[in-house]
Design goal:
2 copies of one chain form a homodimer.
Chain A (H helix, E strand, L loop, with lengths): L26 E2 L11 H8 L15 H11 L6 E4 L2 H12 L6 E4 L5 H9 L3 E4 L18 E5 L11 H10 L5 E4 L20 E6 L12 E5 L1 H14 L6 H12 L1 H25 L2 E2 L6 E5 L5 H10 L2 E2 L1 E2 L9 E4 L3 H17 L1
Helix pairs in contact in A: 1-7, 2-7, 3-4, 3-6, 8-10
Chain lengths: 354, 354
């Protein structure tokens, strides 16, 4: 019998998330996670959480959490939107803001989820190639489009752009909505949050997964003009009113209020990054100037896929992308100093053998 | 200056979630929440959670949690899909399974999110009116359609349908995907989970928000044939790979493994429901035969909107819907026996005054 119901199934190419190993002995430098635990104040809130309150639905408007984020960024709670991780927030932004017949534009080498969302939501898109030194050419973004999304700093290149670049981009795109995805900005990038009053068509997306060590808690946010945020709220409330659960809100609030711990751990990651960049260059690697918690590197004359696989056998997991233009590069998340010393020792061993 | 970027904004009618009061002294019978706390074993897991692991992303495949759910329902982990609350799961089902030009069908009086998702995802739909005694007429669901969704038990009517009804519905709709939304089934309804092997086009959706007292944790699931579940997984992974966070998975696993506490609290809610049904009928109310954790009631000759508002002034919150056909009914969530005694006393006071 023919099964006609199969005609109604949505046909999408499944996105495959990066592998997570259950082996506790590995050095995990493959998912851009933070090597330090979340703020002790966030941990305290979690371990003392009033669990009987879980029988209630969460606050759909996340009033207290939005206030805390607004205070940190010196903006209003009405400028803040919250979601279940920044992937959820960006997916909602695509649905809310990219409703033109014209293609949206983003770099060819960038976060791999952008084309996936375009396919899912049937949004036309066009890529602008990065330059040979992996920079985004802002002049490419002058032509008419249905929207712009750029990660700043970009991934996996680790490179960041400054205020002048962002303002040029915004001035070239006054008829589109421009999303700046700032997943990695806290590690030394320029944040466009200061520009939201000047550019009403600007949306900045952030996450608690990287600089705040809360990848397991799923907290993402968007910052923008009140008008854009209210559109996001309406679309979110048409999809799922309760995207952020009660525990995530409480833990996230404690985390953003602990500025001291945040600054201390971010500084540690940056210091380690600078040291490892120096050491890798000394060994002969080409390492891009990272503004993130990872490095993007290659070695002239060595096979990076082989290096990646060799390290994996040694229980050191980094990331390799089998993608044209970057298929002889590796992405290395910054771990603790101890982890990075093991990584360096193994790397020296590899170089001595190959 | 004309702001052309506004043309690209998505225009949706915002869905307004039910009100949550910050007043701790109210008796809250308005959101179908469970009056009892979550399983003590779930609470223990939360309060002893290894917080430093939050720096890692959650398991995108939720292997352990799916195994626990599969064990409870005596199915395979490949028959289980997980999401960020059942609203998230049903929204993903709409996107995954309702891709026909023909309208999907559901009752006119039912969960108010169904038409909202149809509008958001541009899915055509058609309502079949409930009978005058609020039953779903299965013969209405014989005509060609693009999909079927029915809550069983239905809300806000509280009425449940049995196996014969569901099998008729499935036999009439062999060319469509049929979703049975079982948010309230644990309070005495018939669960269609036992039919998933017989009907490959059947999807059953459940939630931890009602019978498991975890509304604040956001856990929903779908159960169906491996083929349908794999389509849901592909669409989910195209949207957001990490919909359920690490804490929710751990707490949810402990909750579903504690069958004894689950059965005990569900029985308590059912016993209270039967007592209150009896008492309200004795007072002159018409109360439908509930298979849920709430009652749907009216009183011939009394104004239910007025009754609802009067109770609210007395700090007893129930739910009233200003919707044709049910605009003289109220929905009353079953609370603890103590809460329901206050509710009954206030109700008697109202009746003596009006």
């Amino acid at each position: 019998m023919e099964k006609l119901w199969k005609n109604n199934l949505r046909n999408v190419e499944p996105y495959v998330p990066g592998e997570q190993s259950k082996n506790k002995d590995i050095i995990k430098l493959n998912a851009n996670e933070n090597p330090y635990p979340p703020s002790p104040k966030a941990i305290e809130v979690l371990n003392n959480f009033n669990c009987s309150s879980l029988r209630f639905y969460p606050d759909a408007n996340a009033v207290d959490f939005k206030k805390a984020i607004a205070k940190f960024y010196n903006i209003q709670p009405e400028n803040v939107f919250l979601g279940n991780g920044s992937d959820d927030v960006i997916a909602l932004c695509f649905q809310s803001f990219f409703n033109s017949e014209k293609p949206i534009v983003f770099p060819d080498i960038t976060y791999s989820f952008y084309p996936v969302w375009c396919n899912l939501f049937k949004i036309p898109y066009k890529n602008h190639p990065l330059s040979s030194d992996f920079r985004i050419n802002v002049e490419d973004y002058k032509e008419e489009n249905g929207g712009v999304i750029i990660p700043n700093p970009n991934a996996p290149t680790s490179l960041g752009e400054g205020k002048e670049f962002i303002e040029k981009l915004l001035n070239y795109n006054q008829d589109s909505i421009v999303i700046i995805d700032e997943a990695y900005v806290d590690f030394g990038g320029f944040s466009s949050v200061e520009l939201i009053d000047k550019y009403e068509n600007l949306v900045v997306v952030g996450t608690f997964s990287k600089s705040r060590s809360l990848a397991g808690m799923r907290i993402g946010f968007a910052i923008g003009s009140k008008e854009l945020i209210s559109v996001l709220e309406a679309v979110k409330n048409s999809y799922n009113s309760y995207t952020v659960n009660s525990v995530s809100m409480a833990v996230g609030t404690a985390s953003i209020n602990d500025k001291e711990y945040f600054e201390k751990t971010v500084s540690k990651v940056i210091a380690t990054r600078e040291r490892i960049t120096y050491e890798l260059r000394k060994l002969g690697f080409t390492v891009l100037d990272s503004k993130t918690n990872f490095l993007f590197a290659t070695y002239n004359g060595k096979n990076m896929k082989d290096y990646f696989e060799w390290l994996k056998e040694q229980n050191v997991f980094i990331r390799y992308f089998n993608i044209p233009k970057i298929d002889n590069y590796v992405r290395i998340t910054i771990g603790t100093d101890e982890e990075m010393n093991v990584f360096l020792d193994k790397t020296k061993e590899y170089l001595s053998l190959n």
